[in-house]
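Morning, I've got a small favour to ask if you have a moment. The fold is given in discrete form, as structure tokens running alongside the sequence. I'd be grateful if you could look everything over and explain what you see. No rush at all, and the record is pasted right below.
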Amino acid sequence: MKSSILKNVNRRNFLKAQALAGVALGTFRGVHASENNTLKIGIVGCGSRGRGAAANALKADPNTKVVAIADALEERATVTADFLKNEFEDRVQLTPETVFHGLDAYKKVIELSDVVLLCETPHFRPLSLRAAVEAGKHIFCEKPVAVDAPGVRSALESVKIAEEKKINLVSGLCWRYDPNVLDMMKRIHDGQIGDALSVRLNFLTGKVWTRPRNPGDTEMMYQIRNWYNFNWLSGDIIVEQAIHSFDKALWVFRDEPPVRAYGLGGRTLRRGDHASSDIYDSMAVVYEYDDGRAIYSYCNQMNKVFFDRDEYVSGTKGFAKILAGKITGQNPYSQKQVKANRYDLEHVALFNAIRSGNCINDGQYSAQSTLLTILGREVCYTGKKITWDEMLNSEDSLSPKDYSMDADPPTLPDEKGRYLIPLPGAGKEIYEIL
């Protein structure tokens, strides 16, 4: 999640960063000082990630403006409109008529924009992605692209449409744009640690937010407001948050997916008074390749325990720590890390492609990395060994029967406010308060 950018966004920092972005733009796409065609930006999803992406996009290209925004919840759209206008002044041209809310409000933003930033709750991303590519709009699409296999297949179809229409599609898997990680990946791919045999992922971090039920909320409104805590909306911790690590693992193996996976997971802290959710707080998964290569992943969201976030690659000639920038073995290396904002750089790449006409499309690896995490979730939920092909072709959908604020979401609480959770080997049962 990328909410940290908001802690550093103010008018002075924005102008300074915009000047630095001009240097980056010169590096990434040449000089376009003579251009005067303004690109209209629309934002779908007005949480912290939507606000952060708006700041990234405005810094990435000085000849852009925000013209429309939308969120499922009216108060979130209104607050974000006020925030953006206060921080970025004339770069944000929003009126009450261009601030939308509702579950289909993304359509209105797409209609008014040249470039759409898809930063909404992950469940809805396949719908807005399809609408944006069919409308021929350039896209920044946050991770993950879906929360279930049908959503991934829809995203892959949208990726193909974008390729055919030469639409630029940049993924929110921002480490692919980080110069330090790019350096480490090049060294791994060039054989500095020999042949990569395994990747171990640690995404061991603290508990994320929960939000209270507001007076007058329908169950759908409550779950959308508290979206991180519901599998059908977020995809669980492995899909929504740990996907960054999984994407780097797939990248190590040149985006070749594994053949099968198995794993285990559960709930240790999300119980009792904190049981208003249906997601896990810890998962461990083994992904197997037929030639013996493997990905080992460990992720949790727990406070006051061991924290670690890095990817560890074992090869025939050495060992690499990707984020630490270290290689040991026959060809040791210690990286002198470059200061760079990967969130800004992915937007620089998007506007570079739009201005230059050199189309880029990150959709394939974004969809594959999403499916990798969904596969991991499902083996933990079921306790079964599942193949990549079985997961890709799964018809299990997390979608509600109807998209409206008065409709029932896919999971409902019992009389004590508890939700059905997956129990490996037993299907779904009520979680007992311990």
About this structure: The first strand starts at residue 39 and ends at 44. Confidence is low (pLDDT under 50) at residues 1-35. Residues 126 and 151 are 6 Å apart (CA to CA).
